[in-house]
Amino acid sequence: MCGLVGLVAKSDVAPEIYDALTVLQHRGQDAAGIVTCVGGKFSQRKGEGLVRDVFRQQHMQRLGGPMGIGHVRYPTAGSSGTALAQPFYVNSPYGIALAHNGNLTNSEQLAQELFQDDLRHLNTDSDSEVLLNIFAHELQTLGKLSPSADDIFTAVASVHRRCRGGYAAVGLLVNYGVFGFRDPFGIRPLVIGARKTHAGEEYMIASESVALDVVGFTFLDDVGPGEAVFIDQEGKLHRRQCAPNATLRPCIFEHVYFARPDSLMDGISVYKTRMRQGEALAKKVRRLRPDLHIDVIIPIPDTSRIAAQSMAYELNIKFREGLMKNRYIGRTFIMPGQSERKKSVRQKLNPVPLEFSGKNVMLVDDSIVRGTTCRQIIEMARDAGAENVYFASAAPPVRYPNVYGIDMPSASELIAHNRSVEEVCELIGADWLVYQDLDDLIRCSHDGNPHVDGFDCSVFNGEYITGDIDQSYLDRQEFLRSDDAQSERRVELQAEGGMVGLHNDV
Questions:
Q1: 4 near 17, Cβ under 8 Å?
Q2: By the 8 A CB rule, do 415 and 427 touch?
């Protein structure tokens, strides 16, 4: 999962891209990057780490220009490292920089086509570099000295014909403008905002609406599935549907975990969706265990708080903040390696014994993926004196890998894969475990916008909406992207002293 920003303004955009990326930091903590353009030249700064660590004052002073794009990353396909920080750049045609959120499911085939047929070189194993080169090649084949908005849309249409998977992208063309596009299913999110100034209209593209809010832009619209937008250097907005038979099927896990609750995605309030998740979960608890005695409901911070609050209200049970969070520890779900996740849970959360001692406690989490976090938190609750520890997941069991840009590559690492609810309950050490029903989860999101065609729920039901995923593909991804495989690559990278890569001129 990654965060994207693209901006065309009447003054230098780097400070505002920095602010927007900081707000999108929850979408990726591995690396960050900004590319701006002025006078026909790119300026770039990118590297591993948080936004605040990658950029210094001297960098921001040299990132001049009224157009730019930014990116925060955590790795899914490919590995980690400085050379894989985005945006990526190609010099032909024109000079193009691009940042990408998602995953191309036919990346290996496309990489081969780029080398054999398109005669283009790839410097990394990132599918984002593949996407950039596909777009660049399709734009180059048009043979225009000065590309128009129509030419950009034609190139994006060709990208949609060749690429499969879930992807949203923002890009920058030297001296021409900023563009963005979204896959034909709209799996990965992308929004547009506008701001009026005395010098004229300014436009911004971002992964979530909260990025618009922080820099004073007004939300205009979501980029539709298969749609492309182009903001030229004069500040004019162009839009076009570039994929036939597009259908809106956004990733429902955005509503469960990834997106900030104050975001609006495809007309759906994430906050209200999570409220409905808690209400639905409460009704299921009442239906399955009407006599269950719960003294207190405690959320596992932060993403489960809204669902836990509405669940407590629906059940007329006390809601308490029983787990205190260390804000300086990152999101454990997106940390590389099981050992790092285990260590960080104890650093991240600490119980308030007063809320646990002698009580029957219902812990609420947004989801259970690997089971590492909830198992340790249940142990903490018992150590703090809890009589019984019940556990509720606002999402259904995560049983299948994700192939569209969320780091759930290996089925064997998912605790609910090929296990019953009772078996998972025993493994995490809870006295009772309740999961959200998938139909209820879908309804919670769909109620926010009845016009959405459906949702990508592949991690819950194993149905991959792009229609190109088979078991051999999943086996290959598990081999390449499991925790063990990623750990081996990190060891190799450290032994080599890190890849130098082709990046950073500021």
A1: no
A2: yes
Report the CATH number at residue 69.
3.60.20.10
How confident is the model over 350-381, as pLDDT tens digits? 999 999 999 999 999 999 999 988 999 999 99
Give kind and range of the element (H or E) at residue 476: helix 471-481
- The CB density around residue 328, as the number of other CB atoms within 10 Å, is 7
Q: Is residue 444 among the annotated active site residues?
A: no
Catalytic, out of 2, 37, 251, 444: 2
DSSP sequence for 424-471:
HHHHHT-SEEEE--HHHHHHHHHTT-TT----B-HHHH---TTS---H
Best CA proximity match to 164, nearest among 181, 179, 184, 180: 184
The sign one gets for the Cα dihedral 386, 390, 393, 399 is: positive
Rounded to 10 degrees, the C-alpha dihedral 361/367/373/374 comes to 30
- Please tell me the distance from the alpha carbon of residue 152 to that of residue 137, in angstroms, as a whole number: 12
* DSSP conformational letter for 355: G
Backbone angles phi and psi of 203, in degrees to 5: -130, 150
C-alpha to C-alpha distance for 259 and 264, rounded to whole angstroms: 9
Q: Do both 315 and 226 map to the same domain?
A: no
Q: Within a domain: residue 466? A: no
**Residue corresponding to tokens 């001049």:** 64
The proportion of the chain whose per-residue pLDDT surpasses 70, expressed as a percent, equals: 91
Residues near 218 by Cβ (< 8 Å), separated by ≥ 6?
A: 193, 194, 195, 212
Domain boundary at 432, 453, 474, which?
453
Amino acid, single-letter form, for residue 226: G
Domain-located, residue 124:
yes
How far is it, in rounded angstroms, from Cα 127 to Cα 161?
16
| pTM score | 0.91
What's the CA gap between 355 and 372, in Å, rounded?
23
Q: How far apart are CA 384 and CA 382, in angstroms?
A: 5
Q: Is 159:167 a contact under the CB 8 Å cutoff?
A: no
Are 179 and 224 contained in the same domain? yes
Q: 330: which residues sit within 8 A by CB, 6+ positions away?
A: 29, 344
Q: How, if at all, do strands 360-365 and 388-393 pair?
A: parallel
Residue pair 249/225 in contact (Cβ under 8 Å)? The answer is: yes
Name which of 77, 89, 7, 108 is nearest 43 in CA terms.
89
The partner residues of 137 in beta bridges, in order of sequence, read none
Give residue-wise pLDDT tens across range 436-456. 999 999 999 999 999 999 999
